[in-house]
Design a protein that fits this description.
InterPro entries: DUF5688. With about 325 residues, the chain is of the alpha+beta class. It has eleven helices and 13 strands.
C-alpha cells in the first residue's frame, strides 16, 4: 500500500504490533499516555523484558504525520527497535531508596515550572510558588544505568506515604540540589562555541568523503570557534548562561543559595534573569539604557522558535537586586 491513511491511534497500534513481532515473546510491548510539563500529553511506547522491573520509554508523537506510507512505517519500526535495544536495562533498577523518606530525602531535588500552565498538575503535587513559577520536587535516580538522568516526580500521595511535609521536602531539596547538580555560569560566547564545535565535529566525523578529501584539518574547528568568539565580543549586550553541570532542569539554579549573589559581586552589577527554558536561564547585566522590552522579546522569541513546548519555563523576565539580594519579576 502506498498510503495508510491512519490516525494516530492506528499508528500507535501498528508500531506496537511491529515491535512486539521484532522483539519476541520475552518482551511486553505497550503504550501509555504521559503528562509532561506545561500540560503536554505524549504517547510513550515501552518495551519491557519480562524479567526486568523497569524499561525505557520512547515517545512516538514526533514520528507521526498524516498520509504515512508503509515504507515510512517500517523505517520507524526499525529505528525504534534499535533504540530499544541500545537503551535496554541490563539489570533491574534499584528503587528501594524511594520507599522510605529517610532514604529518599538524600536524592530529593527540585525544578522550576510555570505555575499557571501546570495548574492541574500542581493540585496533585507538593510545591512552592515563586512569582509566576512553582518549585516542584523530584527524586533523582542516581543508580545505574541512569546516574541522575531519570527522575520520579513527587506527588502528594508520596508525601503522605512518607509521613513528611512540604517544608521538609523543600529543605532536603535545597540541600541536595547544589551538591547533586552543581551550578555553572559561562559566557554566551563560550556556550555557543561549544555547541558549534560539537555539531561541526559530528558532521565532520560522519562525512567520510570530506575527511578522505582532506578538506578539514585538525585545527579547523578550533580556528572557526576562535573567530566566532571574536565576532561575539562585539555584542553590546553581554550574556551569561546559568545551568547545572548536567544541563538538566538547570533553571532551578537561580534559586540555589548564594549563586546569584556571587555573580552580582563578580560583575559589580544588578542583572536581568531571562528564563530561556526549564534547563537554563540567561543572565544579562543591567547596564544604562538596557531595554527591558527587548529582553522580553528575546525570551518570547526563544520560547516560540527554539524551545520544545514542554520545556518552556515562562514568557517573563526577572531582575536580581544586589542591595535586596532578591529576584524581582519585571513582566
Amino acid at each position: 500500500m502506498n498510503n495508510t491513511s491512519m490516525n494516530f491511534k492506528s499508528f500507535t497500534q501498528a508500531i506496537l504490533e511491529k515491535l512486539q513481532e521484532m522483539l519476541g515473546d520475552n518482551y511486553s510491548v505497550f503504550s501509555q499516555k504521559v503528562k509532561k510539563n506545561n500540560g503536554i500529553e505524549l504517547t510513550g511506547v515501552i518495551a519491557k523484558r519480562k524479567e526486568r522491573n523497569a524499561a525505557p520509554t520512547i515517545y512516538i508523537n514526533e514520528f507521526y504525520h498524516e498520509g504515512m506510507t508503509e515504507e515510512e512505517m517500517n523505517k520507524i519500526g526499525d529505528l525504534l527497535y534499535h533504540d530499544f535495544q541500545a537503551a535496554e536495562f541490563e539489570d533491574n533498577v534499584d528503587l528501594s531508596g524511594f520507599t522510605e523518606f529517610e532514604k529518599a530525602k538524600k536524592q530529593l531535588v527540585f525544578k522550576l515550572v510555570h505555575a499557571q500552565r501546570n495548574e492541574e498538575l500542581l493540585k496533585l503535587i507538593p510545591h512552592k510558588l515563586f512569582h509566576n513559577l512553582a518549585v516542584v520536587f523530584y527524586y533523582t535516580v542516581q543508580e545505574p544505568p541512569f546516574y541522575g538522568k531519570a527522575a520520579i516526580l513527587v506527588y502528594n500521595s508520596h508525601m503522605q506515604q512518607w509521613g513528611t511535609n512540604l517544608e521538609q521536602l523543600y529543605q532536603a531539596a535545597m540541600e541536595n540540589a547544589p551538591v547533586l547538580f552543581p551550578s555553572t555560569i559561562d559566557s554566551m560566547q563560550k556556550v555557543m562555541v561549544g555547541i558549534l564545535e560539537e555539531e561541526l565535529k559530528e558532521d565532520i566525523l560522519s562525512d567520510e568523503n570530506r575527511k578522505d578529501d582532506g578538506l578539514f584539518e585538525e585545527n579547523w574547528v578550533e580556528e572557526l570557534a576562535g573567530q566566532m568568539i571574536e565576532d561575539m565580543k562585539e555584542m553590546k549586550m553581554p550574556m551569561y548562561v546559568l545551568t547545572n553541570q548536567q544541563k538538566l532542569y538547570g533553571a532551578a539554579c537561580m534559586l540555589y543559595p548564594g549563586v546569584l549573589k556571587a555573580f552580582g559581586e563578580k560583575t559589580g552589577q544588578d542583572f536581568y534573569v531571562l528564563p530561556s527554558s526549564v534547563h537554563e536561564v540567561i543572565l544579562v547585566p543591567a547596564t544604562p539604557g538596557t531595554d527591558e522590552r527587548t529582553l522580553w522579546a528575546i525570551v518570547t522569541e526563544i520560547n516560540r522558535t527554539q524551545v520544545a513546548e514542554d520545556e518552556i519555563l515562562a514568557d517573563s523576565i526577572y531582575y536580581y537586586s544586589r542591595n535586596m539580594d532578591k529576584i524581582l519579576r519585571i513582566s
